[in-house]
Amino acid sequence: xxxxxxxxxxxxxxxxxxxxxxxxxxxxxxxxxxxxxxxxxxxxxxxxxxxxxxxxxxxxxxxxxxxxxxxxxxxxxxxxxxxxxxxxxxxxxxxxxxxxxxxxxxxxxxxxxxxxxxxxxxxxxxxxxxxxxxxxxxxxxxxxxxxxxxxxxxxxxxxxxxxxxxxxxxxxxxxxxxxxxxxxxxxxxxxxxxxxxxxxxxxxxxxxxxxxxxxxxxxxxxxxxxxxxx
Length: 230
Known about the structure:
The chain is of the alpha/beta class. It has one domain (20-221): NagB/RpiA/CoA transferase-like (Rossmann fold), CATH 3.40.50.10420. It has helices at residues 20-39, 43-70, 90-99, 172-179; strands at 76-78, 102-109, 113-119, 125-127, 134-136, 140-141, 151-154, 158-160, 165-166, 186-189, 195-196, 212-215, 218-221. An eight-stranded mixed beta sheet has the order 6-3-2-1-7-10-12-13. It has a three-stranded mixed beta sheet with strand order 9-8-11. Strands 4-5 form a two-stranded antiparallel ribbon. Mean pLDDT is 90; it is low at 1-13.
């Protein structure tokens, strides 16, 4: 694992000396580029990278979950029902359930906010009203459901070496990251070419960083060593 020196837990630095409209336009152009690159990934390569990224993530997260289950403290883990264009995290959800974790996945609410529903393999889903994603049907919880989570595993379009994250543009996860206790490790799952050099993404003051990135190449620590990592 690549473990750089711990860095500040504060939000990623915004792009300096650029008008807000220019930063927003640059972010949208980068999203367009990244989405096109994802569409060009062949299905078998998408599957290979997804499996490998989950393996690397599980090598860290699995022991963490098992230790808490063995101590009688089955942890929550936040994750996502991946869109077809994203790395497939279905294998991660299955392992979490088999190990005894409580898996929570997001539901999109008005005002660009998320609530969280406990997920099981037999959970019924429906198409979200506010975004092109599947959502589970069930009782909805606030972010307090993840206050002591073993991890929050999230999507994204790109992340830099120092943790700056570019999402789809809704700001949902920036709000979550701003409110999540700093003790909860945050990990984005990406394709290999989406881990970018530090400073290469345009940033706004509201953009929040992640702690680590899982790709087919490994688990990259961005801002601080994750608990139990080597």
